[in-house]
Structures are given as C-alpha cells and as structure tokens.
C-alpha cells in the first residue's frame, strides 16, 4: 500500500470517526473542522480490498454540496479527502463515470490555485 509522510508517525487505520451524514449536515466552520479531521484520518488509512466502511464517506464527498461548495477551504479539503478515498479504493473506484468526472474537475480546479 501507498504510505504518506505522516503514516510513519501514526498507526494505520481501518476506520474513520467522521460519517457521511456528519459531513452532509455540517455547515461553515463545523464542516471545515470535520473535513480536517477526516483528512487526518484518511491519511493513515491503509489501502484495502474491504473499503466498504468508506462508502457513505465517498458518497458524501462526491456530492455537489461539497464538490461545488463556495468556500475555498471546503473544496480544498474535499479534494484532499477524495484523493485518499481513491487511493484506498484503488484499483476500483467508488464513483460512477459521471461522478468521477466531477471529482477530477475539482482536482483540476484546485491545481489551478497552486503556483
């Protein structure tokens, strides 16, 4: 499995404390805080064939509410979480073609802000 630089500092995980419902119901600062927590948890989650525990998270992250959110921090954190979700699910994807297109459009839009 792929490892990030912080994984050597934290034990690998196979669960997350943030749920899809928690993301969908959160607003403002609470949403940013939950996405930050999820980002930290997903970074230490190992790639696995049994990634079903992330299905509701993947569904929430792929929702237009987060993909097209007006807050730049929310979009950046959503993109970060989505990149880890795709890593964990690889080589499969939790998204259909249309949703995957939306995910990659978010990635591209976030990359425009780099540099």
UniProtKB/TrEMBL annotation:
Entry GO terms, CC: chromatin; nucleus
Pfam families tied to this protein: PDS5 (PF20168)
Cellular compartments annotated: Nucleus
Keywords: Nucleus
GO terms under biological process: DNA repair; mitotic sister chromatid cohesion
Protein name: Sister chromatid cohesion protein
Organism, scientific name: Haptolina ericina
